[in-house]
Amino acid sequence: MADYDMDPDAVTRSINQLRAAGENFASAWANHKQAIQAAQGRFGTDVLAQAFLEKYLPIAEKLTARADAIPGSYTRLCDDAMGCVADYLAAEQQGTGSVRRLTGTGDEPS
After folding, report:
1. In angstroms, rounded to a whole number, what is the distance separating the alpha carbons of residues 81 and 103?
2. Contacts of residue 107, Cβ cutoff 8 Å, sequence gap at least 6
3. Global pTM?
């Protein structure tokens, strides 16, 4: 049987760092997205600009949608990971309480 253990404090710190990375991306992306969209309006209306935009816009829209989704992915991942930490702590508390009840050692954990 495998031996599984978690350092909840270390995992929580790592999750918070990952969450901060997602928040930093969201902030940076919002600024860059605004700059990109502002620049798109300056391409002009001549034949060359229209030919470029015809190829550029569909790709830009796909990439924009994917970049827009990244912060939410970080948030969901971190929320799920924090749920795992909470589950681990609850199981640890329950297991410790069961051992104490069976062995008659110590007080019940609070």
Report:
1. 33
2. 100
3. 0.76
